[in-house]
Each structure stands twice: as structure tokens, then as C-alpha cells.
Amino acid sequence: MKKLIITFTISTLCYLNTFSQCTLNSLYQDSSFGIWPTVNVNLPTAVQGQSYLSVIDIKTPTTLIEASGGDSALTSFDTLGQTFYVGDWVVDDFELVSVTGLPNGITLDCYDPNCIILGNTLSCAYFSGITNDPLGTYPIDIAVNVNTHGDIVYYLGPIPITVPVTTDLYSATGSYQYITGYEIEVSNTASENLTSKINNGVLISSIGSRNYLIVNDSKFLNSSGYIELYDISGKLIFSKNINSFSEKSMIEIECQLKKGAYFVNLVSENIQLSKKFIISR
């Protein structure tokens, strides 16, 4: 029997504070199967003794052929002397089964109960916690399972026999699909606390009674993405989709900023940036 291999990419953005659960990002509501940001970003650094949060935006696949990246060879199996194509079978649910390799104190939780997400559904998951593990890089493996159902038709002589089948990746292949290549680096260097100063190309500034987020980083130039701003409690207080970052994008923050710490997260098609600011005025 050929394995039904479900392949996907996963990447995350990081916030240096925790909140009760991630927030669904409507930017991906009409997308096909995917996880954002892309795999090239990897997981941000965790600082010893500080809160860590890394969010995964997920849009689950509708069918097995979508989940396999369009490769029909990965959605066929041999039995009863015949080859059966199951690429059009519906994905009932998509499960993040487990994660290994995380630094102690950091765990994976999901928006959906038990990390089981219905097919063709927008969701999210997040790594969070505080670690005091030794400095270094911690490779991470994520086990994934997919539940599906459909019919196979075989022939007993000239007579077609239809058999309804309900199965999952683990039952069909004897193993989960593992997502590898991700890691969390544990550092002892905290993010720089800045007030109205440029922080690696990002600036929070006030003009009159209005607050602005200014992005002056060539890595974001001409790409689309979104901006999120969290307060010290982890509450999302502002978000905005950006069709195209300009050379010096100025985005008005449409809420009042009081004294305290804030966490800014910028995500584009190819890069993510997470920064901490302190407003002291």
C-alpha cells in the first residue's frame, strides 16, 4: 500500500507575551490550504525567563489531493489487486497530534479543542510559556494526522462492489507525517526597549494626538502582509492588512496608546518581524 503523504509547511510569528488563545486572521479566510508565515521564517528566539508566544495561522485542506500538494502519486494505494485513487476524498479533520523537542516550559496549544481542526477551516495554534533551559538551539518535530472518508469500487468479476471507507493517515500508513526543520533558539538577550525610536526599521511615533507605526525596512518593500499590535496583557488592540508596504509605510494606529509595553508584529509574504516597545510619555 502506498502511503498517503500529507505535506505542508508551517511557520510562525512570535510575541513576547502570552494571551489565552490565538485570534483567527481573516486575511487567510478565502485561501487554499496553507500555514503562514512561510517555512523560511522559522520560529523566533525565546529569551530565558521571559514569556514567549509564537502563533501559527492555519487554513486546512479540503481534499487529500490538496493536502498532498497536487501529487496524485501520493494519493493512491494498491489493494485487492487494484490501484485506487483517493485524492478527491474529503478531509474530515486535520490534527496536530504532538510536538517534540520544545524547550522545557514551552507548550503547543490550539484555537480548536484538542488541536483537531475541521477540513477547509481557518484556525490557528500557538507555542507559549517561559523557559529557563540552557542556551542553544532546540529542533522541533510536529506530528500530524488527517482523518478522511470516501468510497472504493472494486469488481468481483463483472459486478462492481462499492465499499465506504473511513480512515486516517496513521491507520492507513502506520505512522504520522512529521514536520521537521523548525527550531527555537534560547537566548539570554532580551529585546531592546525603545520609546519613539527606530527598532530595526520599525518606529512608533506620535504626531499631534495621533499615533503612527512607521515601517522603514527594505525587506518589506512592495510586499503584502499585515500588522498586529498587542498590549502587555497579550490583548490584540490593533491590526491592519497591508496591500503593499512602501519605502516608508506610515500606518495610523487607530486606538489610544497609554504608558506601558507593546508588542508589534509585522508579517509579509517572505519575512516576519516582532518587536517590543515601551511608551513612557
What does this structure look like?
- By secondary structure, the protein is mainly beta.
- It has two domains: 13-187, Immunoglobulins (Immunoglobulin-like, Sandwich); 202-279, Sandwich (Immunoglobulin-like).
- It is built from two helices and 20 strands.
- The strands form five sheets. Strands 3, 7, 9, 11, 12 and 13 form a six-stranded mixed β-sheet that branches.
- The longest helix has 5 residues, at 169-173.
Write down the Rg. Answer: 22 Å
> Structural class of the helix and strand makeup?
mainly beta
Architecture of the largest domain in CATH?
A: Sandwich
CATH class of the largest domain: Mainly Beta
CATH topology of the largest domain: Immunoglobulin-like
User: What's the N-to-C terminus distance?
Assistant: 66 Å
Order of helices and strands: EEEEHEEEEEEEEHEEEEEEEE
Record field, number of beta strands: 20
Helix content: under 10%
